[in-house]
C-alpha cells in the first residue's frame, strides 16, 4: 500500500475531493521532501509582486517571462514525484534564465494555506492528499486563477490544436463549479468498475456477465468452487458506488445520476435506483458476498480478492499498484463496465465511470501564474503523459500517450474499457461535490448497512433520500448543479 493512501481513511481533515484523489494512491511513495517548502512558507508579507510577462510566440503561447521565477508544489502521494521532476526539467530547458523551485509534501493545507492568506502562494499546486485544501472555499474566496488561457493555448505537440482539444472526456467540466470558468485541471484519469482476474473467470468457464441473471449465475458457479462472487471495502463502503453508480446510469440513463447529484427531491426513489439496489442486495441474500466483508478495510478486501477468495471487487484503477504485492503474476487483472439488469436498460453494456483525479491549481495571487500554466501545458504533452503512464500505471488527462508503452494488464484493460464505452462515460459528482454525504451517510450509513443485511433496499433508499434532502436544505453547504 502506498503511503499516500493511508491518509485517505483518517476521517479527519478530509478534503472536498477525497474520493477522487484516491486515484493518487497507486504507487510507492518517496519520502516527503518538504524542506524547501517550509523555508518558502516562512516568508511573511501581505502579497507579492507579479512577474513580468514575455512575448507570446509559437513556442511561448502563454507569454511567460524569460527570467520569471516559477514555484511548483506537488502532493507527495501515490504517484511519487519523479514524473513532476521530469516535467520541471523540460520547463527549465525552455526558460533557462528562470529560477525554478520544486518541492513535494504530504501536508498541502498546513504548509500552503498560510501562504494563501499572506498573498504569496506558489505558482502551481497539486492540491491532493488528506490535507487537501477545500476547492469550494478556494473558489468562493476568489483565490484561484481561471485556467481558460491554458485551455485555449496551443497544445505542446501540435500548434494547430488547443490544449482543451487534447483532453479526455469530462476533464474540462470537472474543473468547473456551476459551469463557471475552469479553476482546476485534473491530471490523472481513473477508470472505475468491477475488477477481476481473467484467469479466475476462465477457471469457471464463464464470460464477464452483461445482465444480472448472468451475474448471479457466475456467482453461483464461483460459490460451488469455494469462491465468493464479491467482496468490497466493508469499512469504507463508499467504494461500492464505483460499480453501483454507473450501473444506475446504465439502467436509468444519465439523467438519474444528474438528479442524484443535484440533490433533487425523490431522486433516489427512481425505479433504476430501486432495481440496482435490489440487485446488489441479492448478492448478500444469496450468500455471494465474501463472509466477513463488512469488517474488512480496502487493503484487506483487495488482498482477499487477489488471493482468489472472491471474484469481483468494485474499485478504481489505482488498485493495480496498490495491490501489486499481493496480485499473483498470472492473475491477468481486468476491469469491466458494470453488469446491467437486462436489455431494457437505457444505456448499452460498456457504460463506465471514468473521471479525472489529482487536481492541479494556479493561485490567483501567484507571482507567475503564466509560468504555472506553462508547466501544466508541458505536463499535458504526449512525452510527459507517456512518462507518467509508464512510471505509475495510470492514464493522464491527455487523450493519448499510451502508444509504444508496454501496458500492464489492468491499464491495458482500462484503455480497452474506455474504447468500448466511447461516449458512454458517466461521471457522478457526489463524491467531489458532497464528500461527507457521499462517504459517511450514503456510503457507510446506507449502502454499507444494506450490504451487511441490516437494511432492506427499500429502507436504504428511504434513509439515503433523507440524507440527500438534509444536505439540500443545509444552508452551510455550498450546492452545485449540472448545467
Features:
483 residues, alpha/beta, D-Maltodextrin-Binding Protein, domain 2, 2 domains, ten-stranded mixed sheet, 20 helices, 10 strands, disordered N terminus
Would you mind describing this structure in some detail?
With 483 residues, this protein is of the alpha/beta class. It has helices spanning 3-6, 35-41, 82-94, 108-118, 135-140, 148-152, 171-174, 198-203, 212-224, 241-252, 254-261, 271-285, 298-306, 319-322, 369-379, 382-392, 409-421, 430-433, 435-451, 457-473; strands at residues 70-75, 100-105, 124-126, 185-197, 228-230, 310-316, 333-336, 352-361, 395-396, 425-426. Strands 1, 2, 3, 4, 5, 6, 7, 8, 9 and 10 form a ten-stranded mixed sheet that branches. Helix 10 crosses helix 11 (254-261), helix 10 (241-252) crosses helix 12 and helix 19 packs antiparallel against helix 20. The two termini are 38 Å apart.
In short:
This protein is α/β, with parallel strands linked by helices.
